[in-house]
């Protein structure tokens, strides 16, 4: 397509996918404020099973005004920083610019649509474990695929074109005609494992599925999310939990993304993962008492934490479960 691609949020996720695209020849431009001089000097190194490469010349800038108008803007910041997007995105827009959010949970698509127009918005669900080892190096440990869809409508020709851009870069990317359904499908796992990993004392997925009581609590939460999705009009089969549990049992000692944020002292994505699904279920006449309990407890815990200190390298892993 000859797309000019802007990356807003050059942490582990943005750096990894941006570097993959750039390595494959895409025209990629990174908003990268704190790490600008290091990346300009050394480029970005990508490590992982089956891949080991360096993108020596990185187009990186400390403002979106310097990047200018793009055809595709990839939003890879945490949802807790969405307020920043309102000022960052406008210099990147022309009449047909697409906005692709790779963020977790519910509400991010609507946020972008409210501020920049529904017709611009695409959503991507990332399934990846990637670590930013230094300012210039990222390492992928597991997964690495994207499910891509349009906000509020079936896939369009442009959806396939964006997916093809990722595919050309060696990223497994599939297209869905129902982005909202896939977001709820992912929440079946995220609401359950991200929440319990913190509330059970900072434990990984192997510890959760290996404990009889926690496993039962996980299955109860999954059933609750499936019921809520159906109440909201997003039809998931009653046994949708099977695929999630089967996949989790093969992960080993996997730390969910919210647990990593908790350990690093970063703000938690509580609203998109627990708050917004709960509100939508209640508005549709449903109930999510277990999710409501996790939501209340996480908010309380998050408020009690001291303000995080500036992070020191190596940086902790960033995941999109």
- Give the end-to-end Cα distance, rounded to a whole number of Å: 30 Å
Order of helices and strands: EHEHEEEHEHEHEEHEHHHHHHHE
Please compute the radius of gyration using only Cα atoms: 19 Å
**Regions with little confidence, pLDDT below 50 for 5+ residues:** 309-317
- Structural category: alpha/beta
Largest sheet features: 11 strands, mixed
Mean pLDDT level? 92
Number of strands: 11
Give the count of helical stretches.
Answer: 13
How large a portion of the residues is in β-strands, by DSSP E?
Answer: 15-25%
Principal-axes shape call: globular
Helix content: 40-55%
Short description:
The chain is an alpha/beta fold.
Kindly describe this structure.
By secondary structure, the chain is an alpha/beta fold. It contains 13 helices and eleven strands. Strands 1, 2, 3, 4, 5, 6, 7, 8, 9, 10 and 11 form an eleven-stranded mixed β-sheet that branches. Strand 7 (98-101), helix 5 and strand 8 (121-134) form a beta-alpha-beta unit. Helix 7 runs antiparallel to helix 9 (212-231), helix 7 (179-199) crosses helix 13 and helix 12 (270-283) runs antiparallel to helix 13. The two termini are 30 Å apart. Mean pLDDT is 92; it is low at 309-317.
């Amino acid at each position: 397509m000859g797309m000019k691609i802007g990356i807003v949020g050059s942490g582990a996720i943005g750096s990894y996918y941006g570097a993959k695209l750039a390595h494959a020849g895409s025209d990629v431009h990174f908003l990268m404020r704190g790490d600008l001089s290091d990346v300009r000097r050394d480029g970005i190194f990508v490590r992982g099973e089956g891949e080991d490469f360096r993108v020596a010349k990185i187009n990186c800038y400390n403002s979106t005004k310097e990047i200018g108008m793009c055809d595709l803007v990839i939003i890879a910041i945490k949802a807790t920083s969405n307020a920043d997007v309102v000022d960052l995105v406008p210099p990147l827009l022309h009449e047909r610019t697409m906005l692709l959010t790779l963020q977790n949970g519910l509400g991010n698509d609507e946020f972008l649509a409210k501020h920049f127009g529904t017709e611009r918005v695409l959503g991507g669900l990332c399934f990846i474990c990637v670590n930013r080892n230094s300012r210039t190096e990222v390492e992928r440990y597991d997964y690495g695929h994207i499910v891509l869809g349009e906000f509020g409508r079936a896939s369009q020709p442009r959806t396939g074109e964006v997916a093809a851009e990722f595919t050309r870069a060696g990223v497994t990317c599939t297209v869905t005609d129902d982005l909202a359904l896939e977001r709820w499908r992912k929440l079946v796992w995220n609401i359950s494992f991200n929440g319990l990993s913190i509330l059970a004392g900072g434990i990984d997925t192997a510890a959760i599925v290996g404990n009889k009581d926690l496993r039962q609590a996980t299955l109860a939460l999954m059933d609750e999310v499936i019921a809520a999705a159906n109440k909201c009009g997003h039809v998931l089969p009653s046994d949708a939990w099977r695929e999630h549990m089967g996949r989790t049992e093969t992960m080993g000692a996997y730390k969910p993304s919210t647990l990593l944020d908790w350990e690093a002292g970063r703000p938690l994505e509580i609203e998109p993962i627990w708050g917004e699904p709960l509100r939508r279920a209640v508005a549709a006449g449903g109930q999510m008492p277990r999710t409501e309990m996790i939501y209340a407890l996480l908010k309380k815990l998050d408020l009690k934490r001291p303000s995080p200190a500036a992070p020191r390298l190596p940086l902790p892993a960033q995941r999109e479960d």
